[in-house]
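Help wanted!
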Amino acid sequence: MSRGLRLIPILLLVFIVVSLAWRLIKPADTAVPSQLVERPLPQFTLAAAVPGKPGVASADFGRGEPRLLNIFASWCVPCIGEAPILGELRGKGVKIEAMAVRDTPEATAAFLAANGDPYERIGLDPQSDVQISLGSSGVPETFVIDGHGVIRRQYIGPLTAANVPGIVDELRSLR
Amino acid sequence: MKAAALLLMLLTTQPLLADSNLPPAYWANRQLPNTQQEAQAQELMEQLRCLVCQGQSIADSDAELAGDMRDLVRRRIAAGEKPATIRDWLIQRYGTWISYRPTGEPAAWPLWLAPLALLLAGAWLIRRRIAMKARH
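Answered by r_m:
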């Protein structure tokens, strides 16, 4: 066998070791983005999550005013951290609709009492049905929906203070 | 006393699990009464990837979202929907990522070509061996 051919196993080994080391140093992004960004919001209707506040439906979007659709849950720990950020957005005139995933009216009401309620409407999604139909893979997530009812952006994971100016600007530009 | 207090604290700690307090969805862990439909659902569920425990199928995963997806698959199959339609519906939302079944898109070509390339390489090796033996 020629000398070149003998090197092949060694080169293969180096290739495998380098690829493994690369993935260890730089882990893959495990977030699964929704394919519905830049597509119209799917049809849905969700019953009210708490008494005194209406449920949410796809028909509430696309009426000329851009809005956020926040997916949260009372059992979701990062959602507690996100709550003040949503409150700040509301203070800046951002309209936020929401759905509580796998939740009960009592638990949702207790969560809102403890962490504030920045929402216009809150729907209850007891079996993650609507969450799945949106291509969302967890809580919290936030969708930006423009005045025509088209999903323009998806934030996976809790919003932070750093996201606030960008969201306010984006909603203004979508008007 | 201190040890007892510590033990009590250890026993009552709650792991920071992202799990709701609701029971699993109705069809999450229940088979469909129609065995043919259940077999169809089972086959599809084994080919759908769990969004939480990535690397497991929704048939294997204990994540709540996987349970809700099993419920969705069984409900739709019981309603007469074809497994291919349900798969396409999920791919529209999550991309081909959600399905373990390889597709025909260019990214998957090396996968389809690999067996052919390996067969050719094997044939070439055998031919060389035979030629070498013949020379001796």
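OP: Thanks! One thing I noticed: The mean pLDDT of chain B is 89.
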